[in-house]
Specification:
Length: 194
């Protein structure tokens, strides 16, 4: 009789764990309502955000100052305010509808948003563009951009003064790393410190 109860309790425990895992992975909104705390897991409601945060922490020379999340049925988009070793502060924007961390492996270009005008300066990768010439290497991913941001910032400032290639990001196909430079959220009440 004891063995039967023990077996029944074990099976019930396994089923409960399986049900919780299924809800957190397959239904992020339900997982947020059951357990609305971010404990750093790479899946569930906060999964996309956590994967990007983990990848950002791996980039040498970059310090995360804070973040903001636009929470809804899922995290629609989120921002990280980061700072380089030389003190340049900028925001990285990520859309929540897809695997945002993939941009750390392969990106189509860089889109730098001016916080005052709202327009973007677009820099496609892989075509010998101004950024790649200034940095001295081919750009392929978000990691390349973050490691070379001081040089990139000089090109962006020069292009901003000339008003070169301003566009709306919605009109450009592909995966572009979106940066707001200088930072809009640094010192803003929406920024949640790390």
């Amino acid at each position: 009789m004891k063995k039967a109860r023990l077996l029944g309790a074990s099976i019930a425990g396994i089923l409960l764990l399986f049900a919780l895992w299924t809800f957190t992975v397959k239904c992020p909104l339900l997982s947020y309502n059951i357990f609305p705390y971010n404990i750093g897991l790479p899946y569930g409601y906060f999964g996309n955000f956590n994967r990007v945060k983990h990848r950002l922490k791996q980039v040498s020379g970059i310090r995360i100052l804070g973040y903001h999340q636009h929470r809804d049925l899922s995290i629609e988009d989120f921002w990280f305010t980061v700072q380089t070793e030389k003190g340049l502060t900028f925001d990285l924007q990520f859309a929540g509808g897809h695997r945002a961390d993939e941009i750390f492996d392969q990106a189509d270009g860089l889109a730098v948003k001016d916080p005052d005008s709202g327009s973007y300066l677009l820099y496609p990768f892989g075509s010998g563009e101004r950024l790649e010439v200034a940095v001295g290497k081919e750009m392929r991913s978000a990691v390349d951009v973050l490691k070379s941001f001081e040089k990139i910032a000089e090109v962006v400032e020069a292009d901003r003064q000339k008003a070169v290639s301003e566009a709306r990001l919605e009109d450009v196909p592909g995966r572009y790393l979106r940066i707001i430079f200088p930072s809009f959220y640094y010192g803003h009440e929406l920024l949640i410190p790390m």
